[in-house]
Amino acid sequence: MSTGVAGTLPRHVAPVDPDRLAAAYAHCLGVARGHYENFTIGSWLLPRRLRKDLAAVYAFARGADDIADEGPDAGRLERLAAWEAEFVACASHPAAARDPIFLALGDTIARHQLDVGTLRDLLHAFRRDASGDTRRFATFDDVLEYCRCSANPVGRTVLALFGYRDAGRQARSDDVCTALQLTNFWQDVDGDLARGRCYIPEEDLDRFPGSRDALAVRRATDGFRALLAFEVERTRGLFARGLGLADLVTGRLAREVRVFAGGGLHILDRIAAVDYDVFARRPTLSRAALARIVLRGVLS
User: DSSP letters along 13-41, please?
Assistant: First the structure.
């Protein structure tokens, strides 16, 4: 686990006005509910006592993601730097935070003794997005390193909220989170290209002749279909390994792991069902399919 500025918050922090804090958490819950995601954070499967904490983490990540992806290119890095400065300040003095997201997040960090460096890794990934450093990845290992910062901190933070901090469970959580991030990359190839990004490794483009042509004209060639089939299958392998986490945790968290992984695997099935032509149509998870996945997760 990364350490960042400080591993955890000091135990003694200034108290926060209860009404102001409740309003801050309500704001974060509104942010979380206001964004459609294939893989929702803080679903009804998770215990009510943790939903506001998960919403605070989500709102923090969502805010940074919006800075990296939206608005004028000029000034994005500066805005992310300001976001990071507020994050560091709220981790030390939550009561001083003016933004409701950082007020709630600071309180969550303090109560659960969350690792600040783990959350700060998310900002490193968003800086890469904002700086244009995601236009090309040389190797699959480079993509995995990006996922280490962009996806894995969320899973590790959820584990910590449930009281799990050991390396074994963290490794399986990383498998699930990385697989979910990769799944998003494979379903969003067309959209990422429109944003000037490509998460398919150069070494894989070289391995499958014709795949580069597909990216240039945004049409699925035989080479591109073979390439995406290859990426989908090794992503399935990560899900298979990560699903072992469900046997290492209890109750609602075990069910949530199965739902998250089930949702990701369903998207991979949808990609295969359209013969890997993600340019013609972006594979998504329907409400009916999500309901079936949730039901399987609950009954498992």
Answer: -----HHHHHHHHHHHHHHHHTS--SS-S
CATH code of 16-114, in short, is: 1.10.600.10
134-300 under CATH 2.40.50.140, yes or no: no
Read off the amino acid at residue 224. Answer: F
- Spatial separation of the C-alpha atoms in residues 122 and 120, rounded to whole Å: 5
Alpha helices (H) in the chain, listed in sequence order:
18-33, 48-69, 76-92, 100-112, 116-131, 140-150, 152-161, 167-187, 189-194, 202-207, 211-217, 222-242, 251-273, 287-299
Residue type, 214: A
CA distance linking residue 298 with residue 300, whole number of Å = 6
Distance separating alpha carbons of residues 181 and 148, to the nearest angstrom: 10
Each residue of 8-42: pLDDT tens digit? Answer: 444 445 677 899 999 999 999 888 887 645 335 44
| Spatial CA neighbour of 190 closest among 167, 216, 164 | 216
Q: Where are the domains positioned within the chain?
A: 16-114, 134-300
pTM value surpassing 0.90: no
